[in-house]
Amino acid sequence: MDQHSFIALLNEDLESEYRSIVQYTQHTTTIKGAEYQSIIEELKAHLHQELEHATTLAGQIAFLGGTPSVSVPTIPSVPDGAEALQLDLDLETAQLERYRERVSQAMDLGLPDVAEALRPLLQQTQDHVMDLQGALAK
Question: How does pLDDT run across 25-40, given as a tens digit for each residue?
Fold first, then answer.
């Protein structure tokens, strides 16, 4: 893999974070029911962290000489609270795997500073997965 390909992957990650931001915004405002109140507050915290993730990724892309993407993937509309949380879990799980790969790829490319910048995203995404698994009792 070369640096150009790595930047393209980081831009895909950035687009996924944009999806998270929009998806969490929708879900925190549309999921209803007393059983969801505590997880809604947790999702609001996730939302702010997703914005930080997007900012970090954009910064790393620019640092490497790329242009941060402004594309937002399609966000499915989900009417049910449990379905929405499952959609969030699926997205976070995919992001977790991508960040594991990205940290390793950064090291392979001799970009330890980039790998270090991505490690907090990896940790927070792992926390998000655990929070959503707990909410869905998985």
Answer: 999 999 988 888 889 9
Please state the pTM of the whole predicted model.
Answer: 0.94
Provide DSSP, 80-110.
SHHHHHHHHHHHHHHHHHHHHHHHHHHHHTT
Cβ neighbours of residue 104 closer than 8 Å, sequence gap 6 or more: none
Tokens of 121: 């995203």
Q: Who's near 50: CB < 8 A, 6+ residues apart?
A: 17, 20, 21, 24
Q: What class has domain 3-135?
A: mainly alpha
Q: Supply 93's token pair.
A: 């799980």
DSSP state of 35: G
Asked if 24 and 5 count as a contact pair (C-beta separation under 8 A), the reply is no
Q: What's the pLDDT tens digit per position in 2-26?
A: 999 999 999 999 999 999 999 999 9
Categorise residue 65: left if φ over 0, alpha if ψ from -120 to 50, beta otherwise: left
